[in-house]
Amino acid sequence: MFGVDSTELIIVAVAALILIGPKDLPVALRTVGRWVGKVRGMARHFQTGVEAMIHEAELEDMEKKWRGENERIMREFPALPGQNLTSDEPALPLEDLPPAPPDPPGDTPPAPRPPDARELP
């Protein structure tokens, strides 16, 4: 990861054992572990923020491309005379729409079951 070889790691461990002492070494390692965890958390948070900014920039680029493509299509295929594409009204009058299909037969409740002979008094 940082170019630390196993022999270098052993030398650092022996030096820490001599300088800190066996009694305080677990506390020192725990403190170092906490600091390493905090640094990793900050790096992860920073990386997530950068990735979010990149994603937003990509979305803006795609939106610009889609808007340009939409404008090109609207220029190539203009609306027919009398056709209003921005209206909230349906394109066809309601009476010209085909009738809705009937409900499927599976939606009806099942017929009641006759009482069992064992249930009769």
Beta percentage is under 5%
Q: What does the average pLDDT come to?
A: 80
Q: What's the tally of helices?
A: 2
Biggest pleated sheet: none
- What is the approximate shape? flat
**Topology, number of strands:** 0
Helix content estimate: 55-70%
Assembly level? single chain
Query: What structural class is derived from the secondary structure elements?
Result: mainly alpha
Q: Termini, distance in Å?
A: 83 Å
Order of helices and strands: HH
Radius of gyration from CA coordinates: 37 Å
Low-confidence segments: none
Task: Supply the key terms.
121 residues; mainly alpha; 2 helices
Task: Summarize the structure in words.
The structure is a single chain. The chain has 121 residues and is an all-alpha fold. Helices cover 55% and strands 0% of the residues. It is built from 2 helices and no strands. The chain is flat. The mean pLDDT is 80.
Task: Tell me briefly what this model is.
The chain has 2 helices and no strands.
